Amino acid sequence: MSELRKDSLSFLEALGQSVANVSPTLTPAIAVAVVAGMAGTASWLVYVISTIALVIIGVNIGKLASKISAAGSFFIYVSRGLGPSWGILSGWAMLAAYLFTAMALTAATGLFLQDILSAFGVPTLPRAVPFAVISIAVWLLAVRDIRLSSRVGLTIEAVSMTIILIVCVISWQAHGFTLDVKQDTLAGASFGSVAQAIVFAIFSYVGFESSATLGKETRNPHRVIPRAVILTPIIAGLFFIITTYIITQGFGDDAAKLGASTGPMNDLVSGRSEILTLVIYIGATISCFACALASINAFSRILFSLGRYQLMHYSVGLVHNNHKTPHVAVTIGCVLNFIVCTAFSGHAYTDLLGYFGTIASFGFILVYMACSVAAPALLIKLGSATAKDYILGALGTVLMCLSLVGSVYPVPAAPYNYFPYGFAIYMLIGLAWFILLKYRMPQTLLGLEHDMETGEFGLQKT
Question: Most CB contacts within 10 A, which of 118, 251, 351, 441?
Answer without folding.
Answer: 251
